[in-house]
Amino acid sequence: MSGVGAGFEGIRINSTDETVVKKIMFDDVSSLLAHEGSAILIDRVISCGASDLVALVEHKKKSLYSDAQGNVPIWVGLEYMAQTICAFAGVVSLQSNKPIRIGLLLGARKYSVFAPQFTKNSPVEIKVEEVFRDETNLAMFGCEIRDCKDGRVMA
């Protein structure tokens, strides 16, 4: 496998009443997701903390949702957010030596957009931060998509 090839510091899990900080390594975002092939829309993970993760979508290659010019509708950002949350869950699973599981997006409280589309060759960062998790592992995340070139919020 090839791809990310980066390590992440600061992943914390509780283990026997103490916080364990580990460094994890993985080569490919597909190692974090229960998706395959063209269903994977995020390109790589660029940072990960105890409660947040930032992924990158470069918009360089044709995707399931891109138009003839290579642009992607802004509503696909909701799936970018969902896959970034799945990548966070994948990191947590790897830290806990558990298998990667399929996640379900149950809904979005609000999805505000500030651009008509994601433009070809214009990378975006997707940041997700865990806000709440209950005893059944149901979690809520705050999410944001920013243009990498000018830093503006797109969704």
UniProtKB/TrEMBL annotation:
Pfam families: ApeP-like (PF22817). This is 3-hydroxydecanoyl-[ACP] dehydratase. It comes from hydrothermal vent metagenome. InterPro entries: ApeP-like_dehydratase, HotDog_dom_sf.
